[in-house]
Amino acid sequence: MERRLVVDSSTTEKYLRVASMSIAFYDYFLTLPAEWRFYRSQSSIYHLSLACVLFILIRYVSIMTIVVSNYGYFSISFTQQACQRYYLVPPIFKVVQTMISQVILGVRTFNIARRDRRIGIALLLLYLFSVSAEWFAVLFHGTPAVVDGNCTSANSGKVLSTWFYYLAVMLYDVVMVTVSTMHLLRYNPLSSRIEQLIRVLIYDGIGYFIALSVSNVLNLILYHTTNIETQSAGASIGYAVTWIMSQRILINIRGMSEPDTQRLENVIVARPTITAQKKAMSGLRSHFESKSHSKGSRSSRNPADAEFKPTSPRNSNDVELDIRVRVEHSVVVDYMDESEHSSPWGAPAVK
What we know:
Blueprint: H1 2-30, H2 32-40, H3 50-74, H4 80-86, H5 89-112, H6 117-139, E1 143-147, E2 150-154, H7 162-186, H8 192-223, H9 235-257, E3 265-268, H10 274-293, H11 304-307, E4 323-327, E5 331-335
Antiparallel strand pairs: 1-2, 3-4, 4-5
Helix pairs in contact: 1-3, 1-9, 3-5, 3-9, 5-6, 5-7, 5-9, 6-7, 7-8, 8-9
C-alpha cells in the first residue's frame, strides 16, 4: 500500500512538472510580440530601460530555472556523488528568479507610492531581509536526494527550513500588494483612461498575489513534510507562475503607459495643484492663440514651443503618476512636482 502511494505521488509530480512546463513555454511564445515591442521601444541596445532589462531577466532566468530543475528530476543517470555537486543548482536559480520578480514588484510599488523616500527605504530594507531569509532557507539544511537516478534537493534533517523560503516570499508579496493597493485607492482620476490604468494596476497586483500565494502555499505544505520524494512536486509550478505573473505586470504597465496617437486626450492621473492647472491652461491658450495669429507664417516662432517643452521627458516604459496633456498629436505637456525625480523604470527619452 505504501509503495503504491509513492508511485502515485511520483506520477502526480511528473504530470505537474510537464503541465507547468507546457503552460510556461506556451505563454513564452504567446508573449513574443510583446518582447519585440520592448526591444523596438529602446533608443539603443546599450541604453536599455529598467523595465526592458527586468523583462529580459525574468524571462530567461525563469527558462534556465525550469530547465535545470526538470533536468535533475527527469534524469536517470545521477549518482549520489554527481547529485552532491548538482542538487543546489536549481534552488540557486529559484532564488535568483524570485529576487528578479521581487524587484519588479518593489519598483512597481515604489512608483505607485509616488517614489516617497521613506517608503522607498522601507521597501528596500524589506527586500534585503526577504532575500537574506530566502538564501538562508535554500542553502542550509538541504540535502541531495537520488531516487531512481534523478537528483533533487530535499529537506530531510531534524530542522525543516526550506518551507521558510516560501513563507518569506509570501510576506514580501503581502506587504507590496497592500502598500500599492492602498495608494492606488487614494487617487481620484478625472480621466476614464487613467481610471482604467489604475484598475489594471489593482487587478494585476491582486492577481499576482493570489496566483503566487496558491503556488507558495502548496510548496510550503509539501516542504513541511518529511517525504523527500514529494517535497519538490510543486516546485515547477512555482517557477512557471512566478515567470508568467511577473512578466505580465511589465507587459500590462507598458501597454497602458503607451501614448494613444489616434485621438485627442487630456489625461490627469493625480490630483493637480493650482500651479499645474495654470501652466496647462496657459500652454493650451498660447498654442491656439498663436495658431490664429500666425497661420501660414514660417518665420514666426510659436510661443507654445517654450510653454510645452517637457521639463522632464519620459520613456514610454515608465510608470508615471503625473499630468500629461496632449493636443492634436503634436503638443505635449508633462507636469511633475518638484519633489519628484526621473522614473526608475528607465532612462528618459526626448519626445
